[in-house]
Amino acid sequence: MSTDVWQLKPEKSEVVPLFSKYGCNFSILREDLLHSEYGGNKWRKLKYNILDAQGKGFKGVETVGGAFSNHLAATAAACFKYGLKCKLWVRGFERFRTNPTLEWIEKKGAELHFIRPEHYRAFINEKASAQNMGDWYFIPEGGSNDFALKGCEEILNDETKGFDAIFCGVGTGTTLSGIIRSAKEQQMVYGLPIMKQCHEQIQFIEEHTQGSSVQWKLLSEYAPSRFGKLDDEKLEFIKAFKEETSILLDPFYSSLAAFAMLDMAQKSHFRLNSNILLIHTGGLQAWNGFSVSI
Ligand SMILES: Cc1ncc(COP(=O)(O)O)c(C=O)c1O
Questions:
Q1: Number of domains, the chain
Q2: How far is the CA of 282 from the centre of ligand 1 (A)?
Q3: Is 196 part of a structural domain of the chain?
Q4: Per residue in 243-293, pLDDT tens?
């Protein structure tokens, strides 16, 4: 399989103006449009990993994640596309095999293995330390390695230079670290963690952005009270955003970032006429886990 397949695709995603409100001008970076199955930050994280796996002649890629993981779905789809085998270690039980995300993943030809939650942490640590032995190329949970960071550094582009503030969802902190690494000095980068406890993410970002003078902040006060929870207020927000912009946000990351961005603007956190950019990091497959119509 030729390694230039990734380069053939247009990699610069479009900045789309959204609206002016609360004295600020809002735009969105449509990273979600990079690919229908592995667009958004998954495209950025997988690109150099897949190229490396192909270049070194591995027969397949293996990775780990939760039962509704965007990262697992995207890895399965990218491996399918680029002729690599895919082995996925899922946190949870065999009975999860019939959830819509994992059913979809199996159709992409990936092997699924289930790890009981109490064994999961030890399992992924062991996998990470035995990295890339044998035929399988290992990508850590959430795709949080150096190749993923390198890919995420490519999210911002010439068109994003003029924005005063940038908003993005945070899981592991890899995507935000890449953004901070390539942001301009005058830009303020806000990360929206999807869980209240985010010490690990702060540590990860600090470690991976050393030497950068870009200012950043994680706004954990906006995280849902329970991991993975989508309450009525958030759902109404996502519907209203779609109604106004025709853009569907994912249920966890970009929707949280959009909510925080507008809430802060409404509370006059930004200077008048600030230009603010929301990064749409994709992840729309996560809607498969909800029985709501949007
Ligand atoms: C759609 C989406 N956006 C953002 C993120 C956050 O990415 P990171 O783990 O790099 O912080 C994730 C992580 O899984 C995601 O699936």
A1: 2
A2: 9
A3: yes
A4: 999 999 999 999 999 999 999 999 999 999 999 999 999 999 999 888 888
Indicate whether 110 and 80 sit together in one domain.
yes
Contact 254, 283 (CB under 8 A): yes
Among 85, 111, 146, the domain-final residue is 146
12-26 pLDDT, tens digit per residue, is 789 999 999 999 999
State which residues form the domain around 77: 42-146
Q: Which ligand 1 atom sits closest to the C-alpha of 148?
A: 10
Q: Given 93, 118, 146, which residue is the final one in a domain? A: 146
Give me the pLDDT at residue 1, please.
46
What separation in Å is there between the alpha carbon of 253 and the centre of ligand 1?
7
Please give the radius of gyration of the chain, using alpha carbons only, rounded to the nearest integer: 19
Three-state secondary-structure class, residue 114: strand
Distance of CA 122 to the CA centre of its chain: 24
Ligand 1 atom nearest 194 alpha carbon: 6
Take atom 13 of ligand 1 and give the residue whose Cα is closest: 171
Candidate of 31, 38, 46, 172 to mutate for ligand 1, largest count of ligand atoms within 8 Å of Cβ: 172
Structure tokens at 180: 């901070």
> How many Cα atoms are found within 13 Å in the side-chain-facing hemisphere of 74?
30
Distance 272 CA to ligand 1 centre (A): 30
Q: Are residue 163 and residue 177 in the same domain, yes or no?
A: yes
Q: Quick one: how many helices (H) and strands (E) in the chain? A: 10, 10
CB 43 within 8 A of CB 34: yes
Which helix (H) or strand (E) is 240 found in, with range?
A: helix 232-245
Report pTM: 0.95
Residue in this structure with the two tokens 């946190």, named with its chain if needed? 91
At 87, is the secondary structure helix, strand, or coil? strand
Kindly provide the b/e burial profile for residues 224-242, where b requires at least 16 CB atoms within 10 angstroms of the residue's own CB: eeeeeebeeebeebbeebe
pLDDT at 8 over 90: no
Q: Do the domain assignments include residue 185?
A: yes
